Amino acid sequence: MKVSIISPVYKEPSWMVNRNFFSVSEQQTLFEFEHIFVLDNPEPDEELSKELGALAENSWVQVVRHNANKGLSSARNTALSIATGDYIMLLDADDVMVQGRIERQISFMIENGLDHCYGGYQEIHGNNKEPMGPTIIPPEYNFDYLKNLNNICYCGSNCFKKSVYEEIGGFDESMHDGAEDLEYWIRIGKNKDYKVGLLPEVLYYLGIHSDNMTAKLIASKRFDNAYKYIQHKHVELYALPKKPKAELDFWRDELKYLTRWSKGELELYNNQCPTKEQRREFEHLSESHAAVQLWNKYVTKQGYLDVLEIDESVFEGAIVADIGGGPTSGLAYMQSPTKKIIVEPLLDKYIESGYPKYNDDIEAVCSIAEEIPLPDNCADIVVTVNALDHVDDVDKTVAEIRRILKPNGKIILHVTQRKVPTICEPQVLTDEKMEALFSWCEGFKKKELKTPRPSEWAVWGNF
Questions:
Q1: What is the pLDDT of residue 67?
Q2: What is the 3-state secondary structure (H, E, C) of the chain?
Q3: Closest to 430 (Cα-Cα) out of 442, 421, 440
Q4: pLDDT at 371
Q5: How confident is the model over 36-60, as pLDDT tens digits?
Q6: How many other CB atoms are found less than 10 A from the CB of residue 324?
Q7: Beta bridge partners of 97
Q8: Do 160 and 80 meet the contact criterion of CB atoms below 8 Å apart?
Q9: What is the pTM of this model?
Q10: Given the DSSP bridges, would you call strands 362-365 and 159-161 parallel, antiparallel or unpaired?
Q11: 425 pLDDT exceeds 90?
Q12: Gap between the Cα atoms of 154 and 205, Å rounded
């Protein structure tokens, strides 16, 4: 059994390519492997050219040089065309392979009969040798979630059988605006014969530096073009009422995961499964209702406070409204508010899908955020958690927040500030956009987070 690691190179400095090389060469594994570098730059600097020349002296390393800059997809395809391995691992030149990855990932794929496998990452900044920041583990594989332009298959963690490439072809060389890897995973997912799975551990360190290609594509908003291209190329996947269905599909799948978690079958988002004693507390409920109640009691409440980085005392004696609270808002489990209001447009659908109703002490309002059926000046505090980027009209939503908030009321917002829109998250909320939307709110600013979080996460407010 042989593994081919492919590493496209463009203008990465020689030390970075060297770091990439040694992360592979130091792997301890019984599997044979080769490392293929493809230089997609006809005029590399002298140090990089010398470094690649030195690496090519190793018998298990191949270095191929393009006579023109053909793009990332072309570089990967060149490597794929000469790869002799049974399995293909992606590892861009600025990334680092975690020790033991080859042995663990290939063994995991063989044991589980997988054709394609992906996992998590940590960031490694500049020329550091050690990672920093949180461990990012993606969710379990879900093709419906993936096809809605949520790239859970983080590029440098991917491994697939060479036979997959031989059957579906290489990466799309017409894509120069990013997301060419997402398009490839969608093509794999469309083939129902392929089995895809998550290895829930860190498999690589993602290189973060000033010349990072993905960062540049995000800054130039070119990913928008890539996503439109994917939707056009795979039009049969997108001919549906996109957003509400996608949101509902996500929460239906989430309920399946919660149920498996509650039964001790899998750890979810790094949370340990409940004990038998904890499960007995809700054994009188249906399976799905018990799963949700277990999750809410032992995860949701504290997680809600943790992500906002607040103490429950903030809500003491207040009328609190959670806009876009979903089927499991953490506000529902707070004891300190005088009144709790949860606004969510799909509440009825969630209940039909198996989620329990909120308790009677909650004013549950089934409504879109753009037209909230609540009186003016009715809330002391307005909270949203990962919801503001989901609304269709953010200006109307913010106007409604302003209307229902009492004078001198408090706003606490957890926002995912992604750089490109998705079907479920159509709003791109930059710092400048947030400041403009809430310019009317005195003291409104971005909070400096105390706990390492994904770079897209932010907390805003006037508290």
A1: 92
A2: CEEEEEEEECCCCHHHHHHHHHHHHCCCCCCEEEEEEEECCCCCCHHHHHHHHHHCCCCCEEEEECCCCCCHHHHHHHHHHHCCCCEEEECCCCCEECCCHHHHHHHHHHHHCCCEEEEEEEEEECCCCCCEEEEECCCCCCHHHHHCCCCCCCHHHCEEEHHHHHHHCCCCCCCCCCCHHHHHHHHHHHCCCCCEEEEEEEEEEEEECCCCHHHHHHHCCCHHHHHHHHHHHCHHHCCCCHHHHHHHHHHHHHHHHHHHHHCCCCCECCECCCCHHHHHCCCCCCHHHHHHHHHHHHHHHHHHHHHHCCCHHHHCCCEEEEECCCCCCHHHHCCCCCEEEEECCCHHHHHHCCCCCCCCCEEEECCCCCCCCCCCCCEEEEEEECCHHHCCCHHHHHHHHHHHEEEEEEEEEEEECCCCCCCCCCCCCCHHHHHHHCCCCCCCEECCCCCCCCCCEEEEECC
A3: 421
A4: 92
A5: 999 999 888 899 999 999 999 999 9
A6: 22
A7: 204
A8: no
A9: 0.55
A10: unpaired
A11: no
A12: 11
Q: For residues 209 and 61, what is the distance between their CA atoms, to the nearest angstrom?
A: 26
The span from the CA of 35 to the CA of 384, in Å, is 47
pLDDT of residue 240: 42
Give the model's pLDDT for residue 216. 57
CB atoms within 10 A of CB 417: 19
Decide: 408 and 402 in contact? Cβ < 8 Å: no
Residue 239 in this model has a pLDDT that exceeds 70:
no
Whole-angstrom distance, CA of residue 11 vs CA of residue 48: 8
34/25 Cα distance (integer angstroms): 9
Average pLDDT, the chain: 91
pLDDT of residue 365: 94
Confidence of residue 148 (pLDDT cuts 50, 70, 90): confident
**208-238 pLDDT, tens digit each:** 877 665 655 555 566 788 888 898 788 778 7
Query: What tokens appear for 215 in the block?
Result: 């960062």
The one-letter code for the residue type at 73 is S
Neighbours of 220 (CB within 10 A): 13
Per-residue confidence (pLDDT) for residue 381, from 0 to 100: 97
Single-letter residue type at 256: K
Separation of alpha carbons 231 and 225, rounded Å:
10
In this predicted model, which residue has the larger pLDDT, 231 or 315? 315
* Cβ neighbours of residue 278 closer than 8 Å, sequence gap 6 or more: 294, 298
The CA distance from 285 to 148, in Å, is 33
What is the set of domains in the chain, with CATH numbers? 2-237 (3.90.550.10), 276-461 (3.40.50.150)
**243 contacts 423 by C-beta, under 8 angstroms:** yes
